[in-house]
Amino acid sequence: MAEIANCAVQAESRLFYHICKRIMDVVCSAAALAVLSPIFLAVAVAIKLEDKGPVIFTQNRTGKDGRVFRMYKFRSMYVDAEKRRSELLARNEADGPLFKIADDPRVTKVGRFIRRTSIDELPQLVNILKGEMSIVGPRPLVTYEQNQCTEYQAQRLLVKPGLTCIWQVSGRSDTSFDELIEMDLEYIRNQSLWLDIKLILKTVVVVFTHKGAY
């Protein structure tokens, strides 16, 4: 009987956490979009001046419970970047299903700046408002990358993907894929509002120091 009561208390606690987390997501993302709108405009103009392609880059990512959604980013690469990916596979510096090159020739000059400052990720505030992402949660993998994950690795899909999580404040691009998975699962096991707030504050520090950013 005590065991059942304990489970009920835990369920209520989880529900309270998820309600508070969603409220925090909506309030913070809406406020950030309003405050950062001049930066959005400036970045959009800079992208257009350098390269005439679209300002926003969209890509299929895998979210909670395996649901696929369109994730938004400021475009930091030339318009033919996806077509050129196969030419650069031999230069991949990441392990697992990830693809990363520190000095990627597909990245524009504006792109290097917005990547280094993480400004390219800001359009995901819209994904957060739509409920597809959260401020804190495992980063969503590109769908074809997620499809290469094992059942164990796919446990990261138990929660909504996020704008930031433990691995973003622990080396980001310098972290191996196996370490990334373990950090994501650590977050899932220990989710709390206090942990979310701590990770948001740490992310601000990481963004300003550009640690691990490509």
Q: Mean pLDDT score, rounded?
A: 87
| Major beta-sheet overview | 2 strands, antiparallel
Q: How many strand segments? A: 4
Radius of gyration: 18 Å
The rough form would be described as globular
The proportion of residues in beta strands is 5-15%
Structural class: mainly alpha
Strand order in space, largest sheet: 1-2
Strand/helix succession: HHEEHHHEHEHH
Q: Low-confidence parts lasting 5 or more residues at pLDDT below 50?
A: 1-9
Helix fraction, binned, reads 40-55%
Ends distance: 53 Å
Task: Describe the protein's topology.
Layout: H1 2-35, H2 37-50, E1 56-62, E2 68-74, H3 81-84, H4 109-116, H5 124-129, E3 134-136, H6 143-146, E4 162-164, H7 177-189, H8 193-209
Parallel strand pairs: 3-4
Antiparallel strand pairs: 1-2
Helix pairs in contact: 2-4
Q: Summary?
A:
The chain has helices at residues 2-35, 37-50, 81-84, 109-116, 124-129, 143-146, 177-189, 193-209, and strands at residues 56-62, 68-74, 134-136, 162-164.
Core attributes:
globular, 4 strands, 9% strand, 214 residues, two-stranded antiparallel sheet, mainly alpha, 47% helix, disordered N terminus, single chain
